[in-house]
Write a structure and sequence with these properties.
Blueprint: H1 3-19, E1 57-68, E2 73-78, E3 85-86, E4 91-95, H2 98-151, H3 157-207, E5 210-212, E6 217-222, E7 229-230, E8 235-249, E9 266-269, E10 272-278
Antiparallel strand pairs: 1-8, 2-4, 2-7, 3-6, 4-5, 6-8, 9-10
């Protein structure tokens, strides 16, 4: 008997003695060993629970704008087509501007004429005021001399009174000329301002013959073509701004309480199978 067999028997015995009754010895053989059972242990850990909710919705453009002509006239150029991209402020069409250009030139000529008239009136009025002031100075000098001579009884009372009357008339004429100068200056200034405003208006009207896109996006629909005569405000095309996209979702009443601002969305489009977008 080897040492290994002796050790095994000793352990087996010790176990049996500990389990048996001391009063009665059992000569019977020990019970057969029970086969071990395999057990798997699952460790539970705390984690966040993600609630998935599938919703159906409609994707819409962020903005929809209409390209329209502010003025009426013939479309000299118009090259928009469906699906074409445009930028905000980009010129997409032009109206015939010959009439508006002529109106601008006429307004420019009127403004220049008003400026020349204003300058001429200012010089003319300045000369009239200067002449009236000279006449007044001469009348004042003459009256002073006649008054001295009248006091010395060298001239008659009639001569003195005539000199005094001339002084009064010259003073009145000088004051009237100054009032006329101020009135004429203000009138000419207002006329020049009106002419300048008309010129600016004519320039604005001419600029409106260039039709621009109000937003950046893609042309969805075209409603006109080159050579067509359009009316003021008539729609020429429709532009869609597709970045970003606006989604309208139908949320069931039972799920409204679970919807939160800023929640992450996984977006799929029927027209783009297999492509997901995060939003």
């Amino acid at each position: 008997m080897t040492l290994r067999n002796t050790l095994a028997l000793t352990i087996t015995f010790f176990v049996l003695s500990a389990c048996g009754k001391p009063q009665e010895a059992k000569p019977e053989a020990s019970a057969p060993p029970v086969a071990p059972t395999n057990v798997q242990v699952l460790v539970l850990r705390g984690t966040d629970f993600a609630h998935r909710q599938d919703l159906t919705g409609i994707a819409e453009p962020w903005k929809v704008a209409t390209i329209a002509a502010e003025l009426g006239g013939k479309l000299e150029s118009f090259q928009l087509s469906e699906g074409r991209s445009v930028s905000r402020g980009q010129v997409v069409a032009r109206l015939n501007g010959s009439v508006y250009a002529a109106q601008r030139d006429q307004a420019a000529a009127s403004y220049r004429l008003s400026q020349l008239q204003e300058q001429w009136q200012q010089r003319s009025q300045a000369k009239q005021v200067a002449a009236a002031e000279t006449s007044y100075d001469e009348a004042a000098t003459s009256y002073a001399r006649q008054r001295r001579l009248y006091a010395e009884e060298v001239v008659s009372a009639q001569t003195h009174d005539s000199a005094q009357s001339a002084l009064t008339q010259s003073r009145l004429q000088m004051e009237l000329s100054k009032v006329g100068q101020a009135s004429t200056y203000e009138l000419n200034r207002q006329q020049s301002r009106v002419a300048q405003t008309n010129l600016q208006l004519a320039k604005v009207q001419l600029a409106k013959t260039a039709v621009t896109s109000p937003i950046s996006g893609y042309v969805n629909r075209v409603s006109a073509e080159a050579g067509e005569v359009v009316n003021p405000g008539q729609a020429l095309a429709e532009v869609l701004q597709m970045s970003p996209v606006k989604l309208t979702l139908a949320v069931p009443e039972r799920d409204i309480a679970s919807v939160r601002m800023g929640a992450q969305l996984n977006i799929r489009f029927d027209a783009l199978p297999g492509v997901n977008y995060a939003g």
